[in-house]
Amino acid sequence: MASNNSLKWAGSMKKVYAGTSGWAYTTWKPDFYPAKLYSTKFLNYYASRLNSVEVNYTFRSLPTKKLLKDWIAATPPGFKFAVKAHQTITHIHRLRNVMRVTSKFVASLLPLQKQARSGVCFNCLPI
Predict the structure, then answer these.
(1) Rounded-to-10 torsion of CA 94, 59, 19, 82
(2) Distance (Å, rounded) from C-alpha 119 to C-alpha 127?
(3) Is the omega angle on the peptide bond into residue 30 within 30 degrees of 0, that is, cis?
(4) Whole domain around residue 49: which residue ranges?
(5) 127 in a domain, yes or no?
(6) 15 falls in which pLDDT band (50, 70, 90)?
(7) 37 is a domain residue
(8) What angle do CA 24, 89, 110 make, to 5 degrees?
(9) For a tag site, which of 3, 25, 91, 94 has the least CB within 10 Å?
(10) Are 76 and 115 in contact (CB under 8 A)?
(11) Hey, is 122 helix, strand or coil?
(12) Distance of alpha carbon 19 from alpha carbon 28, whole angstroms
C-alpha cells in the first residue's frame, strides 16, 4: 500500500510524454499500424496511442505553415512535437554566430507554439 507521502508526490507530478523518433514507418505494419492503414493516416493513428513525437524533418528543412497545420490537425490537443534543431545551427555553424538562423528556425515553428504543441527542441551535435 502506498504511503501518504508517495501519494502526495504522485499527485504533484507533471504529465509524462512518451513517443518515438518519427511516425512515418511502413515497417511498423502490422505490429503497430493496422495492415491496411494508408501512410497519410499514420500520424493520426500514432497520436491516438502516444502523446509526443520526435521530429527529425526540421534538421534538414524548415517546416512550412501548411505542413505544421496538417500535423496539428492530425493530432489531439496536448500532443507535443519535439523538434530537432536545424543542421545550419548545430553542424554548419556549430552553435557559433547563429542568432539570425536560430531566429528564422524558431519563427518557422510558430504554428506549433501558437497551438501549444511545441515540446523540447533538441540539438544533435557533431563530434
Answers:
(1) 70
(2) 25
(3) yes
(4) 16-122
(5) no
(6) confident
(7) yes
(8) 60
(9) 3
(10) no
(11) strand
(12) 14
Percent over 70 (pLDDT), the chain: 90
Percent of the chain at pLDDT > 90 equals 85
**Count of domains observed in the chain:** 1
Question: Which three three-digit cell numbers place residue 30?
Answer: 502490422
Classify residue 3: in a domain, yes or no.
Answer: no
Does 38 map to a domain?
Answer: yes
CA-wise closest residue to 58 among 127, 126, 120: 120
d(C-alpha 45, C-alpha 83), whole Å: 20
Q: Are 21 and 54 in contact (CB under 8 A)?
A: yes
Mean pLDDT (the chain) is 92
Return the CATH number at 67.
3.20.20.410
Give the per-residue pLDDT at 22.
96
